[in-house]
Amino acid sequence: MEKYKDIGLKLTPQRLAILNYLDGNKEHPSAEDIYRALLKRFPTMSFATVYNTLETLRQRGGLIELTIDPDKKRFDPNTEPHHHLICVKCKRIVDIHGDYKLPIPNGERAGFEIIGNHIEFYGICPKCKKANSL
Ligand SMILES: [Zn+2]
Ligand SMILES: [Zn+2]
Q: Which fold, 2-76?
């Protein structure tokens, strides 16, 4: 929660619940996931509230938006550089922490100074693999 303190959001109970939901969350939830998870406690909360809060957080660097899942945008409260592995069946996304040195040949660099990378790995998670073999 500490990192959200400086982000300058007015903390309404609903926003606080969204931040709490995200804090330490490794599931890479979508806006819909968060909305559904909090709807029980905040039946009057609108989807726009969730979406706008996420968008504000993203703009202020408190969240990373992942486009790895073609079905929906997913959000990652872990803003440290890391990579992702996605299950092509259930769309579960897990973090990969590792420093991959991927040299780009000089001719391909288009004059860019490279400051980072994000690698998306695709696979089938143990759960889906098990379900498949039944
Ligand atoms: Zn899976
Ligand atoms: Zn992540």
A: Arc Repressor Mutant, subunit A (1.10.10)
